[in-house]
Design a protein that fits this description.
Shape: globular
Number of helices: 7
Keywords: Disulfide bond, Signal
Domain Folate receptor-like: 15-190
GO molecular function: signaling receptor activity
Distance between the termini: 16 Å
Protein name: FOLR1 protein
Strand content: 5-15%
Family: Belongs to the folate receptor family.
Number of strands: 6
Radius of gyration: 17 Å
């Protein structure tokens, strides 16, 4: 049973999900842009995807961050980082889940996010505004970009997502799970890390695999 178990575990390590913009295999990308740069040694995203992740009206998903007025920069950088993690990380294998939508066959589910990453995200976004708690579905797409559905109203994040856990878990329909685990514990995924120190998420993926 051991070789089979090892093979099953290894199939979860260093992989890219089957989704709209992902490469089929991870590998080096010399020119990753901006906040996606930490993954350039080994990435599931292309340089072009990394560039688009930073655009306000990116062609990646035609998603508009500014659907309730302009999102403050300090908040937006967390959503950019979240996009970079999703598009570029080869360390999300243990949480890849099958899905069947027109734009992807796989998604991530319940990725255990380090407490600091989630709390800083909430802290920096609490005064930004939105009209929905789940950003994956239910938008009005008639203009080709997401607009608030009829009957919803724009409110500050802190009312839509009263806690850091609510934000991290609800905004992308449970792609992330809030954990009390701290960065450097080797038990939670970091959205933010210094590539000069190596990628801490490699060990985390191995632990959960």
């Amino acid at each position: 049973a051991w070789p089979a178990a090892a093979a099953a575990r290894d199939s979860l390590l260093n992989v890219c999900m089957d989704a709209k913009h992902h490469k089929t295999e991870p590998g080096p990308e010399g020119q990753l842009y901006g906040q996606c740069a930490p993954w350039k040694e080994n990435a599931c995203c292309t340089a072009n995807t990394s560039l688009e992740a930073h655009q306000d009206q990116s062609y990646l998903y035609n998603f508009n961050w500014d659907h309730c007025g302009v999102m403050p920069e300090k908040c937006k950088r967390h959503f950019i980082q979240d996009t970079c993690l999703y598009e570029c990380s080869p360390n999300l294998g243990p949480w890849i889940d099958q899905t069947d939508t027109s734009w992807r066959k796989e998604r991530i589910l319940h990725v255990p996010l380090c407490r600091e990453d989630c709390e800083q995200w909430w802290e920096d976004c609490q005064d930004a505004a939105t009209c929905k708690a789940n950003w994956h579905k239910g938008w009005n797409w008639t203009t080709g970009t997401n607009r608030c559905p009829q009957g919803t109203m724009c409110q500050k994040f802190k009312f839509v997502f009263p806690t850091a856990a609510a934000l991290c878990e609800q905004v992308w329909s449970h792609s992330y799970r809030y954990t009390p685990l701290r960065r450097g514990s080797g038990r939670c995924i970091q959205m933010w890390f210094d590539p000069a120190q190596g990628n801490p998420n490699i060990a985390v993926a191995r632990y959960y695999a």
